[in-house]
Amino acid sequence: MLKMFANGTKNGKPVRLVVFGLSHGNLDGLREGRPINFNGETCGLSDDIEILIFADETEQAIARKFAHMIAADTEVHIDPRLRE
Fold first, then answer.
1. pTM, entire model
2. Which residue has the higher pLDDT, 1 or 59?
């Protein structure tokens, strides 16, 4: 997996671009249920950021898999188009 970031501008505003390049092996692992997890510091972000990449058949299936990790005090933002 390639991890990198760059600073630039978009529409005259400063932006930080974060890029994750997944190999076919990474994609195979995701299809087999093996998520990718790493600390933001490895790609130039803050070390208090943990990144988790996982996959499933649909966005709703992903949400169902993740539901057990959400507690009463967890702040969650879900695009309304993805709610069941």
1. 0.70
2. 1
